[in-house]
């Protein structure tokens, strides 16, 4: 109930298409999400600020190597 599914990848893709600014997705911690962001030209901002209020959330430091490999330098 704490995660709002209202924002989708389509929303981020639309935002990138109408903005001349870089778009970053904050809170990415999974390699598959990072890969999807890179495919859409959306940067990845790994952060646990605010996200650790869920005891089951993984620390970004744990998944950093896999996420970095998934984006392979394609996006910031």
Descriptive labels:
76 residues; mainly alpha; 41% helix; globular
Summarize the structure.
The chain is built from 3 helices and 2 strands; from the N terminus they run αβαβα.
Task: Set down the secondary structure blueprint.
Blueprint lengths: L8 H10 L5 E3 L4 H9 L3 E3 L14 H12 L5
Parallel strand pairs: 1-2
Question: Would you write up a description of this structure?
Answer:
- With about 80 residues, the chain is mainly α.
- The protein has three helices and two strands; from the N terminus they run H-E-H-E-H.
- The chain has helices at about 10-20, 30-40, 60-70; strands spanning about 25, 45.
- It has a two-stranded parallel sheet.
- Strand 1, helix 2 and strand 2 (about 45) form a beta-alpha-beta unit.
- The mean pLDDT is about 85.
How are the strands of the biggest sheet laid out side by side? 1-2
Shape estimate: globular
Largest sheet: 2 strands, parallel
Number of strands: 2
Order of helices and strands: HEHEH
Please give the alpha-carbon distance between the first and last residues: 30 Å
Residue windows where pLDDT falls under 50 for at least 5 positions: none
Strand content bin: 5-15%
Number of helical elements: 3
């Amino acid at each position: 109930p704490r995660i709002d599914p209202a924002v989708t990848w389509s929303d981020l893709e639309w935002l990138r298409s109408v903005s001349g600014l870089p778009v970053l997705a904050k809170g990415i911690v999974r390699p598959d999400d990072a890969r999807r962001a890179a495919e859409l030209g959306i940067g990845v901002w790994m952060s646990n600020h605010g996200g650790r209020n869920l005891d089951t959330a993984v620390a970004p430091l744990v998944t950093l190597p896999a996420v970095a490999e998934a984006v392979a330098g394609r996006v910031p």
